Amino acid sequence: MSRIKTKFQDLQSKNQKALVTYIMAGFPSEKDTLSAVKGLVKGGADIIELGMPFSDPLADGPVIQNAGFQALQKGMNLDKFLGLVKKIRKETDLPLVLMTYTNILYKHGYDKFIATVKSAGIDGLILPDMSINESKEFLQAAKKNKMDVIFLISPNTAPDRIKKIADSSSGFLYLVSVFGTTGGQQQFQNYTTTAIKNTKKILGGKIPLGVGFGVSNPEQARFIIKSGADAIIVGSAFLRLMENTVAKKIEDKIGQFTSSLKKATITE
Amino acid sequence: MKLKYPKNGKFGEFGGSYIPETLVPAVEELEQAYLKYKDDPEFKKELQYYLTQYAGRPTPLYLAKNLTKFAGGAKIYLKREDLLHGGAHKINNTLGQGLLAKRMKKKRIIAETGAGQHGVATAMACSVLGMNGEVYMGYKDTERQKLNVFRMNLLGTKVHPVKEGTQTLKDAINEAIRDWITNVKSTYYLLGSAVGPHPYPVMVRDFQSVIGDEILVQMKKLEKKSPDSVVACVGGGSNAIGTFYPLIDEDTKMFGVEAGGEGIKSGHHSATLVGGSKGILHGMLTYLLQDDEGQISETHSVSAGLDYPGVGPEHSYLKDAKRVKYDAVNDKEAIDAFLLLSKHEGIIPALESAHAIAYAIKIARNMPKSESIVVTLSGRGDKDVEEVGRYLSKNVKNKN
Q: In angstroms, rounded to a whole number, what is the distance separating the alpha carbons of residues B60 and B174?
């Protein structure tokens, strides 16, 4: 069984929901990424998403755009990314999910790319611009390499399409909570709650539902979980914290913030 | 070879729709609306009305005698899209999509622009059709095309300068897509070139095909046959695909001219089909300028409208099918052609179109006088006079 699936089963037996945390590989530096991972592990993150920067991240808001830009400026590429993943694997056995854009995989070749990152220790993939309509070759390569594929759905995705997308997904399904790009929201609207409830009904417990985009503090995390999500996904808030923290304090600060979010996933 | 409507949104292996899930319903709604109205008599009649009475169609096919004499070979005809309202072919598409957006009951229109020609054409369509327009434009482009920013403002359209990435057309498209994701229900994204996810490439091609359709009719009248060759510049490739598509089954040689910038070898260029490789950007699979890691390259061209690292997927298909020959013309050759056409014919061409002129002169020389070339003069060059001035003074300095 995949690390992601095992993790969700384990959490379920403990009556907990999952905290999925996103950081950008190589932002602000490779060393800082490692410090952040240590903080995430200490603070109780359940799954770690690692962003691999792309020059044109059209689903991302300013925070992740800027982080990706800086990581690229410092020379982040596939080789360095693999090196980083191997170092992270020495720190933790938590599920690791790679988030990037389709062209990065296409350029290296779907099969070759997936096989390479799998052997370095990546368990799942998230590609915000990969539509199931175009996913045949990608899915074949993922299946061959036993890689989990986490597709995204949106509050405006039609019910039959949610079913189809869920059938192609493994690990969990990623519901984009709002109409918009990644980054902080002031307040969630009713349509987010409705989307979570409707999607849960459609999924019928076949695959866990993660909710992200704009979840940035424990209150919001609690709200999303109360609405029925199996996992919350937090990204931009971590990057903002890293941006505003001196290098030697990153591990502690990330640890504290992670732990405050993790508390929101434990039902009393 | 003529692909009337792409199957599964694909031209061969190219095209498709690689987009965030939030946009899937919007793109499907757009395709349904397009299929519903494209052959609807009322829609066609209304579009025809605006194209004739507002935009100034049909445009002349002008025999450039002085340029022909200068080149000393085949006759060179200019398809005068520069004479359209707004000064470029872009209005063919913005009126078409604008009327479609109205039928879809979308009140807010967003668009991207490079040189500002599509932005201006969008602003005009919004103004005349009574809709609200907002345009994203790379900051670098707002600086080098100030006149068009001012024009858009006059026409009542708000311009958002984009300071992300390379601050050119590619980043303006990214930002427009982000806006569309955020305001997907209320907003119509009026894409300006034959790029992006399906159905944009085919829809923009169809609206621009009026160029090639007119060329065919006019050439049959003037020369009693279809043209021996046609030449058009290619950035995203909308004027080129509009020129080529109606002629695909004719006995006509076709040439697409990309921006060679400072030369292909220098790496500072925008010649996607000449120097690129296959990849995925802005929702489509097509040729791209990118590095070995799949990161999109920074492009260069003296003309902002060609300064784009991708190209319309149908061009990628026509390149691989060897139906169209794609080649590059560098900054200097384009500037020379700009000066030449201004001096010999009294026509100041857009720098984009000057690339096509430069290439046409080259091939005309090797063709017999009995043959004829049609060059699509996609736009007029008033917007470029400052940029040309800057280029000339910089290069005079370098020589000293």
A: 36
Active-site position among A60, A123, A230, A251: A60
* Residue A156 touches partner B, C-beta closer than 8 Å: yes
In this structure, are residues B216 and B240 in contact, taking their beta carbons and an 8 Å threshold?
no
Token duo for residue B214: 């007119």
Question: Cβ of B279 and A107 within 8 Å?
Answer: yes
User: Would you say the C-alpha torsion B35, B41, B42, B48 has a positive or negative sign?
Assistant: positive
> Residue B208 — pLDDT band, cuts 50, 70, 90?
very high
| Nearest-CA distance A232 → chain B (Å) | 19
Catalytic residue among A49, A148, A230, A251: A49
Nearest to B314 by CA among B248, B231, B225, B219: B248
B378 is catalytic: yes
pLDDT in tens, A18-37: 999 999 999 999 999 999 99
The pLDDT of residue B400 is above 60: no
Domains present along chain A, CATH in parentheses = 3-262 (3.20.20.70)
For chain B, give the mean pLDDT: 96
% chain A with pLDDT above 90: 95
pLDDT confidence bin for B1, thresholds 50/70/90: confident
Q: Report how many Cβ contacts below 8 Å link chain A to chain B.
A: 106
> β-pairing, B10-11 with B284-288?
unpaired
Strands across the sheet containing B10-11? B10-11, B14-15, B284-288, B277-281
Whether residue A133 lies within 8 A of chain B, CB to CB, comes out as yes
Q: Does B172 touch chain A (CB under 8 A)?
A: no
pLDDT per residue over B276-289, tens digit each? 999 999 999 999 99
- Pick the catalytic residue from B112, B134, B214, B333: B112
Name every chain B residue with its beta carbon within 8 A of the beta carbon of A131: 17-19, 21, 24
Does the pLDDT at position A222 exceed 70?
yes
Residue A39 has pLDDT above 80, yes or no: yes
Cβ pair B281:A103 closer than 8 A: yes
Which one-letter DSSP state was computed for residue B104? T
> Is the CB of B222 inside 8 Å of chain A's CB atoms?
no
Cβ atoms of residues A176 and A212 within 8 Å: yes
The C-alpha atoms of residue B136 and residue B113 are separated, in whole angstroms, by 6
* Catalytic choice (B79, B353, B378, B383): B378
Tens digit of each residue's pLDDT (9 = 90 or more) over B217-256:
999 999 999 999 999 999 999 999 999 999 999 999 999 9
Chain A residue nearest residue B175, CA to CA: A58
